[in-house]
Specification:
246 residues, alpha/beta, 6-stranded parallel β-sheet, 11 helices, disordered N terminus
């Protein structure tokens, strides 16, 4: 975990000249919004109040991953996916699925009512603009991902690579090569929360990687990426970017 001692850097002193970010749960705090949604689910399904929120969150994450590619491929609509996720949670805890639709509605209502950036993102972008080229590499549907970029005022960016537009899903090398081409760079540092999609995808094409590990999961291979727990203090992230490029 990075606990770097920050030495002030003058503009333009980064070894790397570009940084790429994942979007969901890296820049946008879906964890925060999801926890609000899951608390609403516990009100609809009071049997789940005995389940620690952290456990429920992990179970929900497993359900998301189980239907992830089906959602990206349009074989499952967003509404169908949300219902499927809730049915999966009900089955996991031995509950009838008859209330799953109400739980899914409550979840999305509360999730969408609690949008925010991951703490430190605004300060980090302010520190990076003018020093490094900034881009985003994200899996998802174009309309939703671009709406998020606009809503959270993350534009302009030097590169935006969205899986639906590129025709490749992380960790496919093609989406990273697309982003590098948009940046006009041969190399960049990738920052993301997914070891498989972000770290392995980026290092697979020769990029440096920083793993955002907000859930404090065991690191699969410390030699592949610099590990951080969050974006605060911003000075540590600037140091991590410098370190990852050496």
């Amino acid at each position: 975990m990075v606990e770097a001692v920050y030495q002030p850097m003058q503009k333009g002193t980064f070894v790397s000249t570009a940084v790429l970010f994942d979007l969901d749960d890296t820049l946008i705090d879906l964890q925060y919004a999801r926890r609000h949604g899951l608390r609403a689910v516990q009100e609809i399904l009071p049997e789940l109040k005995r389940v620690p929120l952290e456990e429920l969150e992990l179970v929900h994450d497993e359900e998301l991953k189980a239907n992830y590619l089906r959602t990206l491929g349009d074989s499952l609509s967003d509404e169908e996916a949300r219902l499927e996720h809730m049915c999966g949670i009900c089955r996991r805890y031995g509950l009838e699925t008859s209330r799953a639709a109400d739980a899914a509605d409550a979840y999305v209502r509360e999730q969408q009512s609690n949008p925010r950036l991951v703490p430190g993102v605004e300060e980090l972008f302010e520190a990076l603009r003018g020093r490094m080229k900034i881009g985003v590499v994200t899996n998802g549907r174009s309309r939703y991902q671009r709406d998020k970029l606009e809503f959270f005022d993350l534009l302009p960016l030097e590169a935006v690579a969205i899986s639906e537009e590129v025709g490749a899903v992380k960790p496919d090398p093609e989406i990273f090569r697309y982003a590098l081409a948009e940046l006009g760079e041969q190399k960049a540092t990738m920052i993301g929360d997914s070891w498989e999609h972000d770290v392995l995808g980026a290092t697979g094409v020769g990029m440096d990687a920083i793993w955002l590990n907000r859930y404090r999961r065991p690191c699969p291979d410390p030699s592949l990426a610099v590990e951080i727990a969050g974006f605060e203090p911003v000075e540590n992230i600037l140091q991590a970017l410098k370190t990852s490029s050496q």
